[in-house]
Design brief:
mainly alpha
C-alpha cells in the first residue's frame, strides 16, 4: 500500500510540472529532498549519539540526492507524455541513458550506505528518547527504499520510451533495470523484516 501511495503521488505530481524545463527535476520531487535535509541538519544539533548519527546521515544523503536530481529524476518529467503515448524526442536521450546506466550501480551502493546510516539514527534516537527524530529516520528510510525500488526503474522505462521516439533502440546498450535494493536477505530494519518478501520460498 505504501508503494502504491508513492506511485499515485508521483503520477499526480506530474500534472503540475508542465512548465518545467524538458530535462530538469520538478519541484515536487526535489522539495522533499530539501525538507528532509533541513530536518536532518536540525537533528544533527541534538546531543550525544543521536546528533552524531544525524550528522553522518546528512553528510551521506546530501551528495546522494544531488546525483538523483541530476541523473535519475529528470527522466520522470516525461512520465505523463509517455503514458499518453506522446513521448517527446530528445537528441541527447541516448547520452542521458548511458549516464543513468553508469550511475545506477553507484546510486544503489550509496542507497545502502544512506539507509544504514538512517537505521543507526533510528536506533540512537530511540535509545536517547527522541521520538520525533526516530520517526523522521523511519520516514526517510521508506522514502529512500521507494526511490530505489520505484523511481529508478521508472526513470529507465521512461528513458527508453523517449529513446524509441528519437532513434531505433539499441538493445546491447540497454541499462540494467535496478533490482530490489535489499534482495532476499535484507538488513534488519526496525523489525519490519524484508519489505520485498512475497511469501514465495522457492529458490
Amino acid at each position: 500500500m505504501h508503494t502504491s501511495f508513492v506511485i499515485a503521488a508521483v503520477i499526480s505530481a506530474f500534472a503540475v510540472t508542465a512548465s518545467a524545463a524538458p530535462f530538469e527535476t520538478s519541484y515536487v520531487l526535489s522539495a522533499p529532498h530539501a525538507d528532509f535535509l533541513m530536518q536532518l541538519e536540525k537533528a544533527a544539533d541534538a546531543p550525544g549519539r543521536t546528533g552524531a548519527a544525524a550528522r553522518k546521515a546528512a553528510d551521506l544523503l546530501g551528495p546522494h540526492m544531488e546525483v538523483e536530481e541530476r541523473v535519475v529524476l529528470p527522466f520522470l518529467a516525461h512520465t505523463q507524455a509517455v503514458a499518453r503515448g506522446q513521448a517527446p524526442t530528445d537528441p541527447q536521450i541516448l547520452t542521458r541513458l548511458q549516464t543513468l546506466s553508469a550511475e545506477l550501480p553507484r546510486l544503489q551502493d550509496a542507497e545502502i550506505e544512506v539507509v544504514t546510516a538512517l537505521v543507526d539514527l533510528f536506533a540512537a534516537a530511540e535509545e536517547d528518547g527522541q521520538p520525533e527524530i526516530s520517526r523522521l529516520a523511519e520516514r526517510m528510510i521508506w522514502h529512500q527504499t521507494n526511490d530505489a525500488d520505484v523511481l529508478y526503474p521508472a526513470a529507465v522505462l521512461v528513458g527508453y520510451s523517449v529513446h524509441a521516439e528519437t532513434a531505433e533502440a539499441d538493445p546491447a546498450g540497454r541499462p540494467t533495470v535496478p533490482v530490489p535494493l535489499y534482495g532476499r536477505d535484507p538488513m534488519p530494519m526496525m523489525g519490519v523484516g524484508n519489505p520485498h518478501h512475497t511469501g514465495n520460498t522457492r529458490p
